Structures are given as C-alpha cells and as structure tokens.
Amino acid sequence: MSRGRALGPEFATRRWAVTQFGGCTAVRSIYPGRVDEVERLLRQLALNNEPSVRDVLVTGNDRVTTARLDEKVGLLVRLGALLTLGAATSSLRVTVDQAIQAGASEPEIVDVLVTVGPAVGLARVVAAAPRLARALGYDIEANE
C-alpha cells in the first residue's frame, strides 16, 4: 500500500513531514519558508528557553500563536489547572470572577471541577469543592 493511500488522499498531493519530538511523532504539512509557530513554541518550552517561558508565564493568553482559545475557555482551563494543583480560595476567586466576566456561568464553572475529577481523584475533588464554593460566594458550611 502506498503512503498516499494509507494516510488518505491529501497525502498524495501535499508535501508532508514526520516529526519526532519528545517521544511523540507528528505528521504535518510542509510549508516552505514558514516555521510552524506551535511546534516552535513547544520546542522552546521543552528546551526551557528563558524568553519563551517568560512570555508564556507573564503574558499567558496575550501571546501570539496561530491557534488561540477564546477568553472564557482559557479561563476555564486555567481554573481546572488551579483546582488540580490545590490552589487557595483567593486564587480560585480571581479566576472565577474573570471567567464570569468572560461569560462563564456558575454551572460551567462547577463542571470544570466535575470534569477534572476523574483525572485528579476523589480526595482532590473533595478538598477543592469547598474552596470553589467559597470562590463562587457560597457558604456551604452554613445550615441548610
């Protein structure tokens, strides 16, 4: 079987490259004279390139890449990371407030905790739930 047939008809008409990086293999299109911005960023971060790491940590979503998450989704992803890391209520509150301003609803915010639950485990979800509730302005310790 030829490479074009095995991988699909688009491989027969375009130039493609197989890249191995960090144990991963990626098949991507070759555009002469153009460096794939996503690949460049990942390479620089993997090499701990100080300017690239600083740009990501300082500017976050303001960095220029070829593909971007919209503001709401980016903040929900950030919230998921904070919940996963066991961040303090104050850190959660800032991100929750920003996500709400970006259009996220409270059910979407709680869904972030539910979504990361299987990855982080029961203990982390139980520990994060009261902090997320307080960040949303709920007093879950009050009598119902």
Percent helix among the residues? 55-70%
State the end-to-end distance: 67 Å
Cα gyration radius (Å) = 21 Å
Strand order of the largest sheet: 1-2
Write down the overall geometry: elongated
Number of helical runs?
8
Main beta sheet: strand number and arrangement?
2 strands, antiparallel
- Pick out the low-confidence regions: 1-5
Q: What is the mean predicted local confidence, pLDDT?
A: 79
What count of structural domains?
3
Structural class: mainly alpha
Element pattern in H and E? HHEEHHHHHH
Strand content: 5-15%
* Strand segment count: 2
Write structural notes for this entry:
The protein has eight helices and two strands. It is mainly alpha-helical and 144 residues long. The protein has three domains: 1-34, no CATH class; 36-68, no CATH class; 71-135. A two-stranded antiparallel ribbon has the order 1-2. A hairpin with a 2-residue loop joins strand 1 (16-21) and strand 2. Helix 7 (106-120) runs antiparallel to helix 8 (122-135). The radius of gyration is 21 Å and the shape is elongated. Mean pLDDT is 79; it is low at 1-5.
